[in-house]
Design a protein that fits this description.
Elements: H1 2-33, H2 42-45, H3 47-65, H4 71-78, H5 80-90, H6 98-101, H7 103-127, H8 134-169, H9 181-199, H10 216-223, H11 226-229, H12 242-257
Helix pairs in contact: 1-3, 3-4, 7-8, 8-9
Length: 278
């Protein structure tokens, strides 16, 4: 049953990444070739994301039933309305401010900020608790800090991006229009770096690479048995000094001249059995 669930998980993950790759190809073609809006509207470019969002809802339900991780699917499931707003805004079907277009993101980030504040308060309360181990208290504190570094920069990025896009779209002579996009995207880069660092210790999902059903190092050693021969050997690179070579030669010569030195003498300790009285 576990093998079948992992196999279905790999198939669903392949389908999700195929839809995501299709969206990337269409977006690159749209941005690079700049075809007319009637030939390739943005609504058609976002069609793979719409399908991916609907598929992610099904996959998330399946992942909950089979105890699998669904962070990837959760992101697309909760942002399906945002994708629709972006497609209509880029097609100039909606003449809204970008602050209104980003309302679904505002809602998601507001809930995330509430969750981060709750995690920080909980970490502070647990840090003063004497009924938990120190490692558990540190784990709660590190988790709260990491999620804070993940959510707050994204919120700052969305604020800067919204102000810049609205100022550019409505030709306002505000200082925010002079802010380069590299400065606007810097908080997003910080959040992505934090997310990458958090993923190193993440668990769940399919723990095996490409359905190996074994850790990578174990699989590599079983595939290449010759590596087992050198796995437990220590190597020292670099030329040895004259002093080290002279001491090694002297030790080798002393072992040859004195046979008793090869086997060190150890005192014989008699075996005693001390029984405790009843």
């Amino acid at each position: 049953m576990a093998l079948r669930a992992d196999f279905y998980g790999l198939i669903l993950c392949t389908g999700e990444h195929a839809l995501l790759s299709m969206f990337e190809v269409l977006a690159c073609y749209k941005l690079q070739s700049a075809p007319p809006l009637e030939e390739l509207p943005w609504l058609l470019v976002f069609a793979p994301l719409f399908a991916l969002s609907l598929l992610s809802i099904v996959v998330a339900i399946w992942a909950i039933r089979h105890d699998k991780s669904f962070e990837f699917e959760l992101f697309f499931s909760i942002n399906v309305v945002e994708f629709v707003f972006l497609a209509f805004k880029l097609d100039t079907t909606l003449d809204w401010h970008w602050a209104i277009v980003f309302i679904p993101l505002w809602v998601v980030l507001s809930l995330s900020v509430v969750g981060v504040l709750y995690a920080l308060v909980l970490a502070v309360v647990l840090a003063r608790s004497v009924h938990m181990l120190a490692s558990q208290r540190r784990q709660h504190l590190y988790s709260a800090l990491c999620h804070t570094l993940l959510v707050i920069p994204i919120l700052i990025f969305l604020l800067l991006l919204t102000g810049k896009l609205d100022a550019v779209a409505w030709s306002d002579s505000e200082p925010v229009t002079q802010v380069p996009y590299i400065v606007v995207c810097t908080p997003l880069i910080i959040s992505l770096v934090c997310l990458v660092l958090m993923s190193f210790g993440a668990r769940g999902g399919n723990p095996w690479w490409f359905a190996m059903r074994a850790p990578f190092c174990t699989f590599l050693l079983e595939t290449c048995p010759c590596l087992k021969q050198y796995a437990n050997l220590s190597y020292k690179f670099g030329a040895s000094s004259d002093r080290d070579s002279a001491s090694a030669d002297a030790e080798r010569q002393s072992l040859r001249s004195d046979p008793s030195a090869k086997i060190p003498l150890r005192p014989i300790i008699p075996i005693r059995s001390i029984e405790s009285p009843d």
